[in-house]
Design a protein that fits this description.
Elements: H1 2-20, E1 40-45, H2 55-69, E2 77-80, H3 90-103, E3 110-112, H4 126-141, E4 150-154, E5 157-161, E6 173-175, H5 177-193, E7 197-200, E8 208-210, E9 213-214, H6 217-228, E10 231-235, H7 244-247, E11 248-249, E12 256-258, E13 279-285, E14 289-296, E15 301-302, E16 312-316
The structure holds fe (ii) ion.
Fe (ii) ion (FE2) binds next to loops.
């Protein structure tokens, strides 16, 4: 408890000092496409790569968080899809977690995901850095995780976070037998709800490994689940910019969305704002569909494709919510409607 408090206070101080140097331009309000009917919505930001030596990247991150906050319906969750820090250092974690906690609203679930950079990118000590990730996640986001995988039910939908467990190779989604067994149980329970299930991993699904060997087991499990249920798999890692024709796929038997690097910058010094800077996604869940919309959080606009259209994809659900029947107001005694009078008493009767 004392340790969590100390982490939170010191991180707030570090983030506050760093944020003083970040540009504060008030973001404009925006909203989901159909606020009346939207059952649930959440934002996804991937590959922030927060690093003490790159202030321009931190400025982009801070400005994007301000836009995330401005959605009028609020966020039912915000997902950080891994590589949230560059090296998993304590100071980087303080900057990342401090900014998230200070800018985003306190009452919404935050779901962090472990990426290869968060656990050393094959240069640090993955076991130590994974423990640090758990400590920060628990101290800031009210969780009690001891593994890089966990799940939460939000608005009836199941949110599943997968994570790498190997200390030998941080570039693969190394899953233990225990993680597969756990996932199997979570999917079985999610199937009972008939609601959309969202899976988040820093890595593409074909990067999954079991006992150090590539495996199709993850893909097979999710494809099987998606035959009768609605599963969506989100990943980052590739740093490919967001475009409809390559970021949104369903080759494996379930929809996948590849999120770009949020803090994408250009120039030799990695410090120039470019067209792909600050892009993530907003996911909207309706009774009969899920819509994934690209969001330019940096500029406070929807992500636009080269043809001028918004980069968005609609998925019709296999298990739509039953339509609500209109409430019938019971008629008063004597059980037949009394016709409304149309005669204006002030009007003289003409013969
Ligand atoms: Fe990355």
């Amino acid at each position: 408890m004392l340790k969590s408090f100390a982490i939170r206070v010191s991180s707030a101080v570090v983030a506050a000092v760093m944020m003083l140097a970040a540009a504060f331009v008030p973001a404009r309000n925006y909203d989901v496409r159909d606020p009346e009917d939207c059952l649930l919505n959440f934002s996804i930001l991937s590959d922030s790569h927060i690093e003490t030596t790159n202030l321009p990247r931190y400025r982009v991150f801070v400005k994007c968080l301000q836009d995330v906050r401005k959605i009028e319906s609020g966020n039912d969750a915000v997902v950080f899809l891994g590589d949230n820090t560059m090296n998993g250092q304590v100071l980087e974690n303080m900057m990342f977690h401090g900014a998230v906690r200070m800018i985003l609203k306190k009452d919404q679930p935050i779901l962090p995901v472990v990426g290869n950079h968060d656990i050393g990118n094959d240069e640090g000590d993955p076991a130590k850095l994974r423990k640090r990730w758990c400590d920060f996640t628990n101290a800031f986001f009210g969780k009690n995780v001891t593994t890089p995988y966990y799940s939460e039910v939000i608005g009836g939908c199941t949110f599943i976070v997968l994570g790498p467990e190997s200390n030998a190779d941080t570039f693969a989604l190394s899953m233990s037998e225990a993680q597969f067994t756990w996932l199997d149980g979570v999917l079985k329970k999610a199937a009972e709800s008939k609601k959309p299930t969202f899976v988040f991993s820093h890595y593409p699904p074909d990067d999954a490994e079991l006992n150090g060997e590539p495996t199709d087991r993850l893909i097979d499990m999710m494809a099987e689940f998606n035959k009768e249920n609605d599963l969506f798999y989100f990943y980052g890692h590739t740093h490919m910019p967001l475009y409809l024709f390559w970021s949104f796929r369903d080759d494996d038997g379930f929809p996948t969305v590849n999120l770009p690097r949020l803090t994408e910058l250009g120039g030799g010094e990695d410090n120039e704002i470019i067209g792909n800077t600050g892009v993530g996604a907003v996911v909207e869940v309706y009774g009969d569909r899920v819509i994934v919309r690209g969001r330019d959080f940096y500029r406070g606009e929807w992500r636009i494709e080269s043809d001028g259209e918004v980069c968005e994809k609609r998925y019709d659900l296999k298990n739509p919510e039953p339509k609500k029947t209109q409430e019938i107001t019971p008629l008063p005694f004597p059980f037949f409607p009394v016709p409304e009078t149309t005669t204006d008493p002030a009007e003289p009767i003409k013969n």
